[in-house]
Amino acid sequence: MYCSLYLNREDVSAKGFFLSSGAASLPQLSKVLAGGEDAYFVICQNWLGVADGASSWSLEETRDGLYAHELLRNCQKIVSESKSLLVTNPVEIICRSAAESQSHGLSTILVAYFDNQVLHVANIGDSGFILLRNGTVFQISSPMFHDFNLPVQIKRDDDPSEFLEVYHVHLDEGDVLITATDGLFDNLYEQEIASIVSKSLQENMQPQEIAELLARKAQVVGSSASARSPFADAAQAAGYTGYRGGKLDDVTVIVSLVQKKSV
């Protein structure tokens, strides 16, 4: 699984806010040896991204998640090799990454850049984010679907700009940003996520610990045949009236605290 967490680069602004982040990625047990379908990166205290590959491509003997991993590897490379702050647009990063990616497969992708005041997000599919402010849900992204359980995805040679949704969100000190693949959002309700994060912060848990906790809880629900879940609600609303339980899936979670930089 491709994952990277770099938080000490000094080329961010000395003023304003920054993101203090921790991440966790748990593949399904059946996909551990293959590396899982999810990928993520966090870099420079202000860039992050998640992607979720499509398992259907395994029927064509393509490794699940290979395209998703390459997409985010390219995203990180583009950001890391930039020698100035001119590269600040996540739409540009996704488009450049897709143009350079050669693997087969399908993937959702979310990339975000924080300019010390505003979070700029480019998203394709059903990965997404929740912004918590004062312990409550302040804003949440909208998943993009063709139909039930068929998220919008891109593949090699697609033009991502034809699919992207863009968000610009002002962040305040103390806000908590949860960015994740659908393995989290299919299994835990928004208010449940908010409650877990709030209680964890009261117990002085760090972003890494909170991300791991959310990922584990999502996998527990995903393994259940009887628990209530957002995925079960959506399945029943789509006509699958007998569906119960969660959705077994890879889970990737990034938890970011908005903190003030010391001058």
The H/E string reads EEEEHHEEEEEEEEEHHHHE
Report how far apart the termini are: 37 Å
- CA radius of gyration: 17 Å
CATH homologous superfamily placement: PPM-type phosphatase domain
CA-based shape: globular
Explain this structure.
By secondary structure, this protein is of the alpha+beta class. It has one domain: Phosphatase 2c, domain 1, CATH 3.60.40.10. It has 6 helices and 14 strands. It has helices at residues 66-81, 90-100, 182-185, 190-202, 207-222, 230-237, and strands at residues 3-6, 17-26, 38-43, 47-53, 106-114, 118-124, 128-133, 136-140, 145-147, 150-151, 154-155, 165-170, 176-180, 251-260. Strands 1, 3, 4, 5, 6, 11 and 12 form a 7-stranded mixed β-sheet that branches. A 5-stranded antiparallel β-sheet has the order 2-14-13-7-8. The model is unreliable at 1-14 and 56-62 (pLDDT under 50).
What's the topology here?
Layout lengths: L2 E4 L10 E10 L11 E6 L3 E7 L12 H16 L8 H11 L5 E9 L3 E7 L3 E6 L2 E5 L4 E3 L2 E2 L2 E2 L9 E6 L5 E5 L1 H4 L4 H13 L4 H16 L7 H8 L13 E10 L3
Parallel strand pairs: 1-3
Antiparallel strand pairs: 2-14, 3-4, 4-5, 5-6, 5-11, 6-12, 7-8, 7-13, 9-10, 13-14
